[in-house]
Amino acid sequence: FRRVLFPSDIGVYYHVEDPVRHFKAVHTCLGCDGVALIEVEIATDQVANLAFWYPDKYLNGDPTTRWVPSLVCLRTMLEYVGFVIQQEVVYADNGVRGRAFITAGVDDDE
Known about the structure:
- The strands form 2 sheets. A 4-stranded mixed beta sheet has the order 1-2-6-5, covered by helices on one side. The protein has a two-stranded antiparallel ribbon with strand order 3-4.
- The chain starts with a strand and ends with a strand.
- By secondary structure, the protein is α+β, with helices and mostly antiparallel strands.
- The protein has helices spanning 19-29, 71-80; strands spanning 3-6, 35-43, 51-53, 67-69, 83-91, 97-106.
């Protein structure tokens, strides 16, 4: 694939039990010039490498939402599986949670 979309309104990432494995699978499916376009809810702590885990609890009225990472955590997971962060924008920050849009590409050397 050349493009994989993760729009927040259909949320894929939030619902998986193992987000690192999920991102690795997406990375594997992309061609050498592939790009993942990721829009996610984030914890707005811009320093800590953390993710909030919500097992069996409701987040935003959805009992299947499992994760809310910090931007640092999300970036670390994406880079760990081989993505190169091309762009990141944080918006709708209420001081606790916000949204981020990240463009992550596959390294041409892979």
